[in-house]
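Team,

Forwarding the record for the chain on the shared tracking sheet. I've put the sequence and predicted structure together so nobody has to dig through attachments.
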Amino acid sequence: MSTERSAPLLGQLLRLRLVVLANGFRRPLPALGRAVGGAVLIAAAVIATQLLVGLGGEAEWRLRAASVVIGSLVSAVCLFLPAAVVRDEPLHARGFAGYGLSAPLLAVLVPLTDAVSLPALLLLVLLVGYVGAWTAVVGAGGIALLTALVLMVLGLQTVRLSSVVGAWLWRAPRGPLGRAIAWAALAAVVVLCVSPLLGDPDSAPGRLLAVADALRWTGLGLLWDAPHLEVVQGAAGPVLLGGVIAIVALAGVQYAIVRTELRGARPRRRGNGLDHLGLFRLVEGSPVAAIAARSLIYWVTDPRYVVSLVALPFVPVLMFAAASIGGVPGDVIGLVPLPVVVLLLAWSASHNDTAYDSTAIWAHVVAPLRGIQDRIGRAVPVLLIGILVIAIGVPLTALAVERRGVVLVVLGLCAAMLLGAVGVGAAVSARFPYAVAPPGSGAFSAPQTASSAGGASQTLSVGAVLLVATPSIVATALWLMHGGAWAWAALGLGVGVGAAVLVGGVALGGRVFDRRAPELLEFAMRN
């Protein structure tokens, strides 16, 4: 690769990238949204930069905690935001196929054009303050500069690869689920980084340092901690070497992608011809598993479900903000969001699933399938996604509430909410379905027929779920006051009562489904 050739080519690619960026502002309303969102993020980056520079003369541990937390947040933006929002890969390599450009040259130059993207701009602004702050610490200035160079290159590569993933998710049939996961991951990092600032201000520095230690081991904050490691241990070399190795590895991935795009290659189809069946390849001969697979496909393709999944990560953020403003104690703030998220997830997906998934009613009735098979199959996706949310949220809750036994308490509350909502929903949705917008409609579409039964059904189901969770909630309150074995009581009551309601609700819902199959079929066809 000659410098004489690559430098003018990079300039042309940057100009082309700016043109592509400007084309995104041609439509007024989306352009206004992008402009406002970008302005808010840039303003936040400038404030964070000023904060880091101001900490340059303070205690070194404060600077370390702030730089790791803020830097990890920006790295998460570079990693997840393009995957969540990008529709078309900027400067797709296939567009250069007729110009005689080699794959290695494009693999190096194309990621550099992402320097004009919003995540890269946020990273650049923060790195200026990062270097300036650590320069004030004796023995850390040179390492901070080298770290900033590694972080900038790594950030550009991350933005490019995340954009490729985002463009692929936009075209993929199950892409909405992937984009929802990217939003959820980004929201989880945001909550983790913001949570130390909520609650008691006197303990905020200690919580910030604990979050910085956690982020350091996730990989997001390890490089940002290099100057501190050099000052304290003289051990920044291995960390920087790891960053260089990561750059080389991502460059190899980028080269493979560019080479594939230049050749116009397509994935080979292998197997016995059943690959197009997706999840149904795994469930042949099992009615319950087939219903579960079809319901899971509904979950990841129907806009009504996808919007609910995307909105859920914002619930803890709003609850944290409202509770901290209202002066709610920190222990209570940390315990509440995850069970509420699990309740909203499980309840919204199960309390009226007969109506939401109405196009499958006729197939289940004429098959014929037993009602309990229908109820179990529809419950499986809710349980799987609920368990995934709990697995992600419990460690975050444990970081927010530094108290022995918190994991047991949160698991008990979440188990009561999840199992209780699915059990109650299995019975209520078979007995009291109400009209909703048809499958495939927008998330905010109105049903074709209005009915007053919806409010009564929603009130009944939510009240029943809260009643199921009451024993675990009472045990949690006693644990907050007295501690000790009440944490195990909260777990046992949550799992035990929730499991009993799940089994009883599914069995009752199955019997109701068998008895009311003609009425349910008429309801599905009418609504």
